[in-house]
Amino acid sequence: MLSYLKEVIKVRVLIVGAGVSGLFIAYELAMKGVREVVVVDKSYPGSGASLRNVACFRSSFTSPEHVLLMKESIKKWLELKDRLNLDIEQSGYLWVARKPETLDTFRKLVSFYHSYEIPAKILNVDEVKGLVPKINSKIISGAMFDPTAGKMGILKNFVKIYLETKKAGVKIIPYTEVKKLITSNDRVVSVETSRGVLEADVYVVAAAGDSKRLLEPLGVHLPIKDVPRHPMITEPYAADYRLGLLIDWDTPGSPHITQTVHGGFILARDLEDIPEASLYSPRSDAFKNIVKPLAELLPFLKHLKIVRYWMGYYDMTPDHHPIYGPVDQYMNLFIAAGFSGHGMMLAPVTGEVISSWIIEGKPSIPVAQNLTLERFKTGKLVRELAVIG
Known about the structure:
oxidoreductase activity; 8-stranded mixed β-sheet; FAD/NAD-bd_sf; alpha+beta; 2 domains; membrane
C-alpha cells in the first residue's frame, strides 16, 4: 500500500505502533465496522515489548481499575483461545511469602479480590508444597494463590492475532517510521513517515516509549520512562511444575519464574536500572541477582544452564497504570501507552476500550476514564503496588 510515494494517502484511522496493543485496537475497530484502518510500525510487528515479555496474565492487582480491566481482558483472551486455538493456560499465580507477617498483607489482598469475585486464597506451607513439590518449604511461610491467572505462548498467539487482524481488513505496514505529527489548530492533520505522508480522520499513538517522543513536539507530555528489564531462559527441564508464575514477594524486585511449553524456565526480576538505557547494554550482575533468590526457593535451578538472556522495556508511568483515551488539546488524537509491564495481558481490553472511545465518544468500560492523561495534571493518580509480570 505504501511505497516510497509522492502522493498523500488518506485513511480513516491511523495507528502508530504494531505491537499487541496497536493490533488489538485495529482489530476491534475493524470488527465494529470501521474500514480503512492502517497500522504502521518503524520495525516489524511485535518488535518492541510484545515479543520480549514473559507472557503471563492476572487480574490480581491492587487497584479497582486494573482488576476490572484485567477481568474483562482475561475473558476476551479465553474467548479468542477457543476461536483461534491460542496457547493460553489458566495455571495460576503463586505469591510466595518468606516472612510470616507477609501473610497478613495477603489476607487483606484476598479480601479485596473476593469483593471482585476473584477466587484468590491463602495457602499454608503444606499446600504450597502440594502445588510446587520441588519448592524449598523450609524458607517460606505460605503463599497467596490466584487460580484465574496464567500464562500464554507469546509468539504463537501474537502471530495468530496479527493474521486475524489482517483478515479483518486492517492494513499493517512495517518498516515505516513516523517522523512527525502535523497539526492545525485542534486537530492532527497528517503524519510524515520515512516513506511518505499519511492523512487520517483519527490518529492513535500506541508506540510504547516512542509515544512520548512523537507527542512532545505537539506540547503533549507523556510521563513515560522506558525502564530496562532483564529476562533469561534456561535449558528445558521436566519438572513437576504447573504454575503460570511464581513470585518471591518478600525479596526486593519480586523475582519471578514461569515455565514455557517447551520446558525452559523464564526468570526475571525488577532490578534498579537507568531509564532509557540501551537494549544493547546487558548487565553482568543480572544472572546472580535474578537466579540466586529463585534458586533458594527452587533448588533444582542451580543445575540448569541459562541458554539465553535478553533485554526489554517496561514503559513505566508514575502510577504504573496505562495512559488511555483522547488527548484534550487535539480532538482526533488518542493514546494507548505506558502499560508498565502489563501491555500483553491488557491488550484485548485495550482494543475494546480505545475502539469504543473512538466510535462512541466514551469507553465501553467506564473505569477506563480514570486512566486518561488528564490525571497527571489533576493529581488523581491511580496507585498500583503489584508491578511485576
